[in-house]
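Escalation from tier 1.

The customer reports that the assembly of two entities below gives different structure tokens on two consecutive runs. Tier 1 could not reproduce it. I'm attaching the input and our single run for tier 2 to review.
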Amino acid sequence: MSPIITVSNLTKDFKEVKAVDNLSFQVNEGEVYGFLGQNGAGKSTTIRMLLSLIEPTSGEIEIFGLNLKAHRKEILKQTGAMIERPDLYKYLTAFENMKLFARLSSVKLKDATIKDQLAKVGLADRANSKVKTYSQGMKQRLGLACALVHNPGLLILDEPSNGLDPQGIADMRKMIQHLSKVEGKTLVVSSHLLSEMEMVADSMLIINKGRKVVEGSVSALLNPEKTEVELITHSANALSFIQNSNWNQFLNQAVGERICLEIDKKCIPVFNKELVENGIEVQSLRPLHSLEEYFLSQTKA
Amino acid sequence: MFFAILRIELFKIFKRPRTFISFGAIAIIVLLVQLALKVNGKDFIELYTDSQSDTFYIPYDKMVNGYFVCVAVLHMILIHVPLLIALIAGDMISGEANLGTLRLLGSKPVTRTELILAKFSASSVYVILLLIWMAFLALFGSILLFGKGDLVVFKEMDWHQMNDYDVLWRFFAAFIFAALALTTIAAMAMMFSVFSENSLGPIVATVCVVIVFTIIQQLKVPMFEQTINPWSFTTHMLGWKGFFYVEKSADGTTIDGSIENPTALVRSAMILIGYIVLFLGVTIWYFRKKDILS
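Tier 1 run:
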């Protein structure tokens, strides 16, 4: 897979605040790239620099193999974006907004094509309603349709699930998966909804205070050889059993009915078997490496 | 691409109800002035010519015709039109920032200079259309209501008379000059707009600047007369009046097709163009390096 975005040593200073600090990463063709970080971590600033809305203090951005500063127009012709709330023009209809953004993207679309695109996001029957009458979910879908109106190869979505209800979040997830797996587009998605990201992202970058914490494929990062395992048990002798066995060397912490060990993933069934054979009642035994836990452990450091 | 953006900007301007408030306001004001002059035309002229009426015989009935009424309307309302211009031009960038659409525009394959030039051109088209509307109502409406005749205008202790066949071109030129003056206001409002992220600030700032400089101009204080007023755009915005001041021959008769001081008119126009270039230059310079955070 060839790189679509290559960011090298990107830095942005706002007076005394360093919003992004020497950040480097690479997004490959066709993947969904998750961009994670706490509020104020520098995600939106980085995304805005990728879209040339903010001028970097230093560093280089290459998209489609071209330097963003030197080839801004060519790059943005092939890039779609939805940044935070897609407010659009509230006094215009969805159809008029779509037409307007198509022209701004140097594309002339027939009315029927625009209606087809609105139908894809489920807004065909409200195409001629003013956007001010739309719900947040409808605005979000229209924002996505506007970002896709010129059929870009790269799509940058900043918090696409913000303000959506559970059904809306599920619909957005399906759309992201469809765009990536069926249409072959490259997506950069920033989100707070880590469980959603875990489901859609192929690779991810976690940043904290403007700096890269970790980057890699989701499967590799969430499935390391060694993993933290959480045991929940009502048995009073569970801890003494572990302390008096070979498992003691893997013991991390024990608080009440919750005992955590860091063991090889392959050993989990063996551990479970030994617990049961020694009369310890296992209420739950699960690896802790969900994206949420991984994210918290990384950003806490 | 520039013309595509210009079309989009015009589409956006004329899709907003607030745009038509200006057209409505002008229609109401013009009609009220015409009505007042129809009912109390003689009283108005007596008030207007108070100082001259003792010296000259003034044929009031002949003076109140469509051309005279149109000049009176221009006198009264051109000073207030900047507010209507600021309402649209002051919202051009800050309104987009406030709506959250500036980031959408900024991430499209158009240069920021193209965007500013298109927005400025759209504001200028709005100014021209507003003036055409005003001309239609004030000139043709007044001709319809009051008929045609020779035009008499007053300038301090002097008065200028023009034959009716020598008047229409003067109105045409005056409206073009007024368009230039109001475009200066549009450029200034847009400049304020680029520094702000809410619509109200640039509109208020524009109106305040116009009011402050108008007051300075009317104070007639020698210090300001020599320093600020010769270069103030509010002084030169009133240059359109120059088209109605005619040259007179040695025997005191009016010379058809003449303008009393064409050099002053050209100077005023050049100064206004200078201001437009300055305001637009600052707007482009700042917007090109502006971080779009809204």
